[in-house]
Every structure is written in C-alpha cells, then in structure tokens.
Amino acid sequence: MTVIVTDSTADIPSALAKALDIHVIPLLVNFGSESFADGVEITNDQFYRKLTESNDLPTTSQPSVGAFEELYRSLGGPDQPIISIHIAAQLSGTIRSAQQAKDLLPDYDIRVIDSESTTMSLGWAVIIAARAAKAGKSPDEIVALTESVVKRTRLLAGLDTLRFLEKGGRIGKTRALLGTLLSVKPIINVLEGEVRPFEQVRTKKKVIARIAEVAKDLAPFDELCVLYSRNEDEARAFLEQLSSIHPREKIMMAEIGAVVGTHIGPGAIGFTGVRKGV
C-alpha cells in the first residue's frame, strides 16, 4: 500500500490521521531560544497561551532534510511507494526539504506534491490521498487524484488583524490592506500558494456573513471544513450556517494549529472546501 506523508500545517485531527495511517512530520515553532515540534512538543492550548503572553511573536521553521530522510527510510525500502504532500512552496521551505531528502534516496519511489495551500486545504488533499491508498489505488492514480483535489480546493478566512501575517513575512499581496488595519476585519484567501486579499469588512458579524455567502456561491462541495483559532463557539455557529449547503454531519471542524496560528493569530474563522468535480 502506498504510504502518505504530510506536515503538521495540515491541521488534520490526530485521530483521523491515525485512522488513515497518515505520517505527519512536524514543523518547529520558536519562542525566543525555545523550539517546539508542532503538535508533538506543544499543543494548541499551550501555543495560543504563549502567543498571547509573549512580548515577541514566535517564528516557525521547516523540518530539516535529515528529518525527512529519516522518516522516509523508516517507512520502508525502495519497493515502498511514498507520496509526500506539503504546505505551499511559497509559504514554507518544507517542500524543498522533502525534495532534497528524496534526492538523497534515488532508489526510493517518493512523489513530492505541492498542495499550493496550507491548513485543512492541504489536509483535504492528504485525507483524500490516504483514503485512496487504503482503497488500493496505485501511486499514479493517487497522484492524479491529489492534483485534482488541489485544483478544486478553496480557502477563505476572516482575521481579527493582519499584524501576525505582516510580522511573519507571509503577507504577500495583502500589503494593500495594511493602511486600514485598525478599522477593518480583513478577509484573505490562498490561491496558487499565495496569501491574497479578498475583501475588507467592518465587523466580525459581516466577516462571517460574507464568507458564508462565498461558500454558497462555490457550492456544491465534496468536502467542507470550518477553520477557527480559539473561537470554537463562533465556528460552531458558522457551521450551522453552512449546513444549508452541505450535510451538517459531514462538515468537519479543525482548529488552526501552531505554525499557521503564528501567522494569523487567534480569532480567525473561515472554511476550506473541495468543490465537486465536473
């Protein structure tokens, strides 16, 4: 069976990752001189508490080439196909580390795929690939399916502030929004691996209404997930709104983890969905 690898920015619930035999390599979150493996040495609760208490914003760093090589070697030999799906190359050097580790193992069958996104947008590509692997699909079939999912996935999120994106250097074209940081709630999307501005609205209530409207315009979905950071009650209410376009019991909820949380901060809310294929 093909083995599926991803990184911790996918924010896949741990029980689901375990059930689907998904292997997750952690990125690092750095508070000053302290470094923590995302999801291994620091929980979401611990991370967001430290984030609000710290005077300086944390930084993040990708897994090393050596960590990837060690993981790939541990999963089997040259006869074991591995598909490694990761955070967008424009957002992190993670995929570069994966590719370099692959190059060190020329006899291994390793396919490295850029999800062109992060958090559960990446997560959906990984989950669907893992389901296909469990169903006995070939590596070529899984790669083709994953590439289709990447093209059909959309992510939209409203933030409380752009401060974290700005400080983290992940702001991209959203610089156009900086002049009105104090007076608006920015809505962003991730397209072709880049964080981009979508709209600016005045209140969190309008953020949620606008994001729900966009989700309805993009429907129908094969998969749908509500994203949030610390604001679970708000996310559950948003899920109820989305139940008009997707079965409630099939909408996942995922809290944004430490690495992505470093760049967006608490109070974010959004969705990521895989649009139905044509």
Total of domains = 2
- The percentage of residues in β strands lies in 25-35%
Helix content: 25-40%
CATH architecture of the largest domain: 2-Layer Sandwich
Pick out the low-confidence regions: 170-174
Per CATH, the class of the largest domain reads: Alpha Beta
Biggest sheet descriptor: 6 strands, mixed
Can you tell me the CATH topology of the largest domain?
Hypothetical Protein Tm841, Chain: A,domain 3
Secondary structure: number of strands = 13
Shape: globular
Distance between the termini: 28 Å
Helix/strand-derived category reads alpha/beta
Q: Topology as H/E string?
A: EHEEEHEHEHEHHEHEEHEHEHE
Radius of gyration: 18 Å
Going across the biggest sheet, name each strand in turn. 10-9-8-13-11-12
Count of DSSP helices?
A: 10
Mean pLDDT: 92
What does this protein look like?
The chain has helices spanning 14-19, 44-53, 65-74, 94-103, 119-134, 139-152, 163-168, 204-218, 232-242, 258-264; strands at 3-7, 22-25, 28-31, 34-37, 59-61, 82-86, 110-114, 153-158, 185-191, 194-201, 221-228, 251-255, 269-275. It is of the alpha/beta class and 278 residues long. It folds into two domains: 3-27 and 58-151, Rossmann fold (3-Layer(aba) Sandwich), CATH 3.40.50.10170; 153-275, Hypothetical Protein Tm841, Chain: A,domain 3 (2-Layer Sandwich), CATH 3.30.1180. Helix 3 packs across helix 4 and helix 5 (119-134) runs antiparallel to helix 6 (139-152). The model is unreliable at 170-174 (pLDDT under 50).
Task: Give a topology summary.
Blueprint: E1 3-7, H1 14-19, E2 22-25, E3 28-31, E4 34-37, H2 44-53, E5 59-61, H3 65-74, E6 82-86, H4 94-103, E7 110-114, H5 119-134, H6 139-152, E8 153-158, H7 163-168, E9 185-191, E10 194-201, H8 204-218, E11 221-228, H9 232-242, E12 251-255, H10 258-264, E13 269-275
Parallel strand pairs: 1-2, 1-6, 6-7, 11-12
Antiparallel strand pairs: 3-4, 3-5, 8-9, 8-13, 9-10, 11-13
